[in-house]
Design brief:
By secondary structure, the chain is an alpha/beta fold. 30% of the residues lie in helices and 20% in strands. GO terms for molecular function: phosphoribosylanthranilate isomerase activity.
């Protein structure tokens, strides 16, 4: 059985990192984008990374950040993977000595095959819901039928997922991984351990049906 990988994003507290790890998350995400209600500083992210055991990936999320700032964060925070969630081009994402993924908001006119070719050096594409003026964290899903089946093995599905929808999303899209933030929160930036465990159960249920 193929196992869908899971990233819990927007972690701000030690207890939430511990809950994500205990639930079996493959990766945890730290939002290094100050306008976000889930943002952490480099100092906070570095402290939270110290709680991670081997084989849990630390992901740093940036939105149209200056390269100098990204480089400075990498020096301070032991990130395994970079996530670029703005309008960055391929050259903006490369050159930091880290593996990276590119988030794409599902605008009506987007051509995912063209974007996959454009970001050929990315480890994967993360697909999120498009809302004007929002970089992410919308809490809304998009039409999963828009994801081409041949791209699914390189896709990380995001956007409005929670324990009640993730099994259906996995069964339909068959992505490499799923990403959740608001769907496991009690409040913005405050995760709920029960919701995290419920989400992970939903992923397992979806894997049985994919």
């Amino acid at each position: 059985m193929i196992r869908t990988r899971v990233k819990i994003c927007g972690l701000t507290r030690a207890s939430d990192v511990q809950a994500a790890v205990a639930a079996g998350a493959d990766a945890v995400g730290f939002v290094l984008y100050p306008p976000s209600p889930r943002a952490v500083t480099a100092e906070q992210a570095a402290a939270l990374c110290k709680l991670l055991p081997p084989f849990v990936t630390a992901v740093g999320l940036f939105v149209d950040e200056d390269p100098e700032v990204v480089a400075a964060v990498i020096e301070q925070v032991p990130l395994d993977l970079l996530q670029f969630h703005g309008d960055e081009g391929p050259r903006d994402c490369a050159g930091f000595g880290r593996r990276w993924i590119k988030a794409l908001r599902m605008r009506p006119e987007i051509d995912l095959h063209a974007e996959r070719e454009r970001y050929a050096d990315a480890d994967g594409l993360l697909l999120d819901t498009f809302q004007p003026g929002r970089a992410g964290g919308t809490g809304a899903s998009f039409d999963w039928d828009r994801v081409p089946a041949d791209l699914a093995p390189k896709i990380i599905l995001a956007g409005g997922l929670d324990a009640g929808s993730v099994a259906r999303a996995i069964e339909q899209v068959r992505p490499y991984g799923v990403d959740v933030s608001g769907g496991v929160e009690a409040a913005k930036g405050v995760k709920d351990a029960e919701r995290i465990f419920g989400f992970m159960q939903g992923v397992r249920d979806g894997d049985k049906r994919r």
